[in-house]
Amino acid sequence: MSHALSFEDIELGDELSESHPDVSMAAVTKFCHAAKHLFERFIDHEAARAEGFAGAIVPGIMSQGLLAAMVHRWAPGCIIKNIDTVFRGSLLVDSEIVMTGAVTDTDEAQRRIELDLTIIAEDGRTGVIGTATVEFPE
Amino acid sequence: MLLDLHTHSIKSDDGRAKVENYCKWIRKKELPLDGFVLTEHRQFDGESDYRHLEDEYDLLILKASEVETDFGHVLVFGVNEDLSASLDFSNIRLPIERVLAESDRCGAFAAPCHPGRKRVGLFSHYEERGAVDGVHTVETLNGGSIPGEDELSVEMAEQHGYLGFGGSDSHVVSRIGFCATEFPDQTITSVDGLVQALKGGAFQAVTLRGGQAGS
């Protein structure tokens, strides 16, 4: 029987399993409606191209949400104290993207860890980098 | 000696790596690096002192700069007061000839990074504007490159007779050491030593991606 990941299970250098989130037009449109974040560049390829993008792009707040969801899938019950993302390049809607994470520091006294987070675009470019501080309640 | 010549810390606006966490990661992952160079964007960090980390983790930690020119980004090793006074590091359209000439005059070493990348890479400007006098070395292996970019860098460097070095261009901790530069039979202990080693030309770019070393 598997158990929820605890602070004691985690070591510096641990890597989260790669995650391949759904950024299809249907999924992104659904997110945009739910978040009341409806802009054509996110939900219409042609409109996005007219703005100079290669196609519709995944909203930054969705990228951050996907990263947070990956952290919670890895460690259910953990508390994300902060998450900080840098958007270095566009992630295209209807493309294959890959999310990764790695433990870069641990703080035993506070039962906190620091994570690197990245999203790689389909062409191999790093679209999003970030870090998160995650706490594990006793 | 194996050094990652291209890394960024939280001192760069888009960097999210703490320098101590780089050190911890290198040791925990048993990366074969002997040290790394912090090449912060559009600035030279003259204030930070990492000697305690060098001692604690037995790593060489040097500081340099990544500046932006009209022919893409350029790494400058051996930044000193003369060079800082001569160039406005925050200018995102520095004339590359001036960066190369002033670096040379001040005893520093300047070399374009990720030259195979569109827009911010040297070679993307060569077709329209021709080759730049004074370039002798480029970063042929860059940890942030997408497929095809480093291949173009290697091919064009060979074509122009440039030497090649490697750097990870890491902005987060877990990406340090993707690429590096090997200085065979040399011991480098300072930035002056690094500049001399680069000027000496006895080095090669290596990739360490996936734990595999290769040039």
Q: If you had to describe this structure to a student in words, what would you say it looks like?
A:
The complex is a heterodimer of chains A (138) and B (215). By secondary structure, chain A is α+β, with helices and mostly antiparallel strands. Chain A has a domain at 10-21 and 59-135: Roll (Thiol Ester Dehydrase, Chain A). Helix content of chain A is 25%, strand content 31%. Chain A has helices at residues 25-34, 40-43, 45-50, 60-74; strands at 15-19, 79-87, 98-107, 112-120, 126-135. In chain A, strands 1-3-4-5-2 form a five-stranded antiparallel sheet, with helices on one face. In chain A, a hairpin with a 4-residue loop joins strand 3 and strand 4. With 215 residues, chain B is of the alpha/beta class. Chain B has a single domain (2-211), classed as Metal-dependent hydrolases (TIM Barrel, Alpha-Beta Barrel), CATH 3.20.20.140. Chain B has seven helices and nine strands. Chain B has a seven-stranded mixed sheet, sandwiched between helices. In chain B, strand 3 and strand 4 (72-77) form a beta hairpin. The longest helix of chain B has 12 residues, at 149-160. The model of chain B has no long low-confidence stretch (mean pLDDT 96). At the A-B interface, strand 3, strand 4 and strand 5 of A face helix 1 of B.
Strand-helix topology:
The complex is a heterodimer of chains A (138) and B (215).
Chain A: E1 15-19, H1 25-34, H2 40-43, H3 45-50, H4 60-74, E2 79-87, E3 98-107, E4 112-120, E5 126-135
Antiparallel strand pairs in A: 1-3, 2-5, 3-4, 4-5
Chain B: E1 2-7, H1 19-28, E2 35-41, H2 51-57, E3 60-69, E4 72-77, H3 81-86, H4 96-105, E5 109-112, H5 123-129, E6 137-142, H6 149-160, E7 163-167, E8 179-182, H7 191-200, E9 204-207
Parallel strand pairs in B: 1-2, 2-3, 6-7
Antiparallel strand pairs in B: 1-8, 3-4, 4-5, 8-9
| Uncertain spans of chain A | none
Q: If you average the pLDDT of chain B, what whole number results?
A: 96
- Determine and state the CATH class of chain B: Alpha Beta
Count every beta strand of chain A, where a strand is a DSSP E run of 2 or more residues.
5
Radius of gyration of chain B: 16 Å
Judging by the overall fold, what is the CATH architecture of the domain at 10-21 and 59-135 in chain A? Roll
The first-level CATH class name of the domain at 10-21 and 59-135 in chain A: Alpha Beta
Instruction: Kindly report the CATH topology of chain B.
Output: TIM Barrel
Major sheet of chain B? 7 strands, mixed
The CATH topology of the domain at 10-21 and 59-135 in chain A corresponds to Thiol Ester Dehydrase, Chain A
The CATH homologous superfamily of chain B corresponds to: Metal-dependent hydrolases
Named CATH architecture of chain B: Alpha-Beta Barrel
Q: Given the structure, what is the number of helices of chain B?
A: 7
E-strand count of chain B: 9
